[in-house]
Amino acid sequence: MNANFSIITDNLDYLLWGRLADGHPGGVALTLMMALGAAALALPGGILLAGLAWRFPGLVRRLLYGWAEVIRGIPLIFVIFWLWYLLPWLTGSDLPGAVTVTLALAWFTSAAVMHTVYAGVQALHDGQREAALAQGFSGGQTLRRVLLPQALRNVLPSLVGIGISLLKDTSLAFIVNVPELTTVAGQVNSRVQIYPAAIFIFTGVVYYLLCSSLSLLARRFQPRPT
């Protein structure tokens, strides 16, 4: 058992930071960077799309829902592969692997955010909208000032669940050899070829702690019902 733990302690810096000192983050650090970057794109993007779906109930809403259904029906691993090959063709240059995976995660997650937020807005009593319009608010002001704040508070647990899934989904970056936590754990295991159970149990514990911390943090700041 001591030898098992020595595998972790001997490679702990690499598992946590990768080669951060050389300007190449990896491990837990890169996992968090990709998750935060994807969330920073997916959350406002999904809210914007939900707002557009609410404001324009005709063709726009059908197109957005059709796009979201297609994205949600495709495994994330395919989205990563598509962007991995498509973005260099579109941009004419190779993007860093972590950037490509972050964009894929954001694109994939924004569909779930859109569905969740739109459902939250639709669940509000119609009297909320009618009262706001009676006060002279425009449709956009009604959405921004009245409906969205209430809907976001109501769907916060669902958004936290989406965030936790996003954090775990960063592990799929290993398929394109981006050195996040799962990838570097595999590299350590391939290098030492001893006690793989210790390495991957450690990896699972780290993911559990990260996801549990996110859940506890969201619960701490969730408004309590009055």
UniProtKB/TrEMBL annotation:
Q: Record's NCBIfam families?
A: HEQRo_perm_3TM
Instruction: Please name the taxonomic classification of the source.
Output: Bacteria, Pseudomonadati, Pseudomonadota, Gammaproteobacteria, Enterobacterales
Q: Name one GO biological process term.
A: amino acid transport
Keywords, sorted A to Z: Amino-acid transport, Cell inner membrane, Cell membrane, Membrane, Transmembrane, Transmembrane helix, Transport
Q: Which PROSITE patterns match?
A: ABC_TM1
This protein's name: Amino acid ABC transporter permease
Record CDD domains: TM_PBP2
Q: Membrane-crossing residues?
A: 28-52, 64-85, 97-121, 154-175, 195-218
One Pfam family recorded for the sequence = BPD_transp_1
**Which cellular compartments is it found in?**
Cell inner membrane; Cell membrane
Q: Which Gene3D superfamilies match?
A: MetI-like
